[in-house]
């Protein structure tokens, strides 16, 4: 029997029922919950991130929620360091860590480690951003494709943040980014890992849940939440926190780029695209146990996998 501590990953696309399943498992097992959602780390961004409310967080504590101001940066390396600390603290309490969220890259970074890439260069980033304003991110994406086809394939032509980083890495090192990452020094977790992935087969149901959830966010005051963030003078639409799905579209609506109905449609479409990318990541994730079904079926399947892992 393997005596190393068990750590559970609960991954899945947005609006797939991860939170509900995590809460059900929390009531059934001795667990400590750790957030793996890049948007929920930010304070003041509650409605649009579907963050658990304060009453629930008081009953069911989550690590790594509300740990950064939206004006601050937060990287996968930051997450890995914070998550390792949270895992250790939960294990010391005699509980099993349950990491739950949809930022699949964070799970990967935690499990395998990160390559020692050069840090961000503010001056170079400013130059790249200025060029993008002149020619557009798709043209810079074409430049990356000419240098590093593999890296470019994984990035959308309008994903300015990631295109900027790829160009920055190439200009700082002179090497294609995919080669830098191929030399990644693995530092696997010293734990047994059970990887549960909610993999919705019925996309129509997922799309309907996405639409209903965004409409609920609007009713709960998402526009006012974004307006308060926008009124801060230290935030802009180009910051990573403000590029989060839903927030960007509402911000642009408040800027007058388009009306309410167009904003709603754009946000729902962007959320569907996010879910599609998350599902693509999950397909590639090695060793994941895929589960699907309604809440009760998900709980039964997940419980079965956890019981099996505990008794190994």
Write the layout of secondary structure elements.
Blueprint: E1 6-11, H1 18-28, E2 31-35, H2 54-59, E3 62-63, H3 76-92, E4 96-101, H4 104-112, H5 122-135, H6 137-147, H7 149-153, H8 160-173, H9 177-182, E5 192-198, H10 203-220, H11 222-231, H12 247-254, H13 260-284, E6 289-291, H14 295-310
Parallel strand pairs: 1-4, 1-5, 2-3, 2-4, 5-6
Helix pairs in contact: 1-14, 3-4, 5-6, 5-8, 6-8, 10-13, 11-12, 12-13
Task: Describe the protein in words.
The chain has 312 residues and is of the alpha/beta class. The chain folds into two domains: 6-114 and 185-310, 3-Layer(aba) Sandwich (Rossmann fold), CATH 3.40.50; 122-182, Histone, subunit A (Orthogonal Bundle), CATH 1.10.20.140. The chain is built from 14 helices and six strands. It has helices spanning 18-28, 54-59, 76-92, 104-112, 122-135, 137-147, 149-153, 160-173, 177-182, 203-220, 222-231, 247-254, 260-284, 295-310, and strands at 6-11, 31-35, 62-63, 96-101, 192-198, 289-291. Strands 3-2-4-1-5-6 form a six-stranded parallel beta sheet, sandwiched between helices. Helix 2 (54-59) links the parallel strand 2 (31-35) and strand 3. Helix 5 crosses helix 8 (160-173) and helix 10 (203-220) crosses helix 13 (260-284). It starts with 5 loop residues before the first strand and ends with a helix. 34% of the residues are buried.
